[in-house]
Amino acid sequence: MAKQSSAWITKHKNRWPLMILAFFTLSTLIVFSIRSASDSCHSSSNITTTATTANVDRFGEPKVDSKPQIHSSVAPNPLDFMKSKLVLLVSHELSLSGGPLLLMELAFLLRGVGAEVVWITNQKPTETDEVIYSLENKMLDRGVQVFSAKGQKAIDTALKADLVVLNTAVAGKWLDATLKESVQQVLPKVLWWIHEMRGHYFKLEYVKHLPFVAGAMIDSHTTAEYWKNRTRERLGIKMPETYVVHLGNSKDLMEVAEDSVAKRVLCEHVRESLGVRNDDLLFAIINSVSRGKGQDLFLRSFYESLQLIQEKKLKVPSLHAVVVGSDMNAQTKFEMELRKFVQEKKIQDRVHFVNKTLTVAPYLASIDVLVQNSQARGECFGRITIEAMAFQLPVLGTAAGGTMEIVVNGTTGLLHPAGKEGVTPLANNIVKLATHVERRLTMGKNGYKRVKERFLEHHMSHRIALVLKEVLRKAKT
User: What InterPro entries does the annotation carry (predicted)?
Assistant: First the structure.
């Protein structure tokens, strides 16, 4: 069997919350108590480039000013106008997946400016779930109220709220199931935040109210165009006013990414837990393990890259593949397929499976290249991509979806086709970055600069603020 890391992640789901809490305590101590300069586990250097944005267009794309701006010591928060506003956030589920975590981040941003925030989860398991319990308590600790998705309290909150945010297309089922005859009163103040790129979400039962809400917020231009065309052609409905809002890295993640000592400590611990050396090259895919995320094709590419290196007798450090996001309970058949492939190709010592985790920073600090191999239409945006770029990592991504709006091919990474036809190109790209150290490091530095220019928390806050102002204006009229 391929190796499994257990440094920060437990093998048993009911221990996740404690391990997550333990890591956050450790990472906080590392970041805030150690601030001196030091060499990292990698040979890449720390960059302190500063870039600012002048303003943002209607679709949330930043207009970058070439001249640095002078800021006061305490810059105004673009979301300050949300102070004392009542905001209801409706999530289809509460889990460690991207959509719910993004909505939680918005909840904390709004709480930070004094908004009253209420969270409801539409789909919850009947049995107690430790992950849900932990995440709900995290929100309660930050002042976010957590209500039941059904009942009069949810209806009253929706009617009184200044703004209602539906998260993902599936959350649309909550409107009729809970509000019933009150739906029409609530729709004018609904902002629908859509993250999906999969065709099975295009069901009228989910999105029949979409044309009547105040607006839709989507994470990439590619996804927005896809929704516009599909809703018209397949469902015969029209999208509301649609805003594209690229995401941004949190301040906490950037603080770790820019602290060379913190990165070195995390790097050493992760590599030790994986059983790899400091000079080995780690290519990692960090996504929930599923066929749509392309872990199977990545492993085929990785094996092919090892064959190429052997055939061409290239002198490179030992290559390793790290698959972060494993969950045998959720994807048992697919996970067994991955492990069978690893065994058949006799690369158990080169492939490492790591359980699903909320804390990606340790792995970003310890790897050399991120592989974003999402298939079909790709990622709606792919938050892990900008997180990796913050850590000065080049990205090998599929030429699909939001990845193409993040990765500059040949500058911050290399793109390859989705599907089986992308296996050999990805293998070639792995070999390219393994054999060209300077190119790999330069791409990482370029990615970091791009993050500083476009993909920080204050960029995202500014983009979201423009959308919320417009939605609130429409709700009043």
Answer: Glyco_trans_1 (IPR001296), Glyco_trans_4_5 (IPR041693)
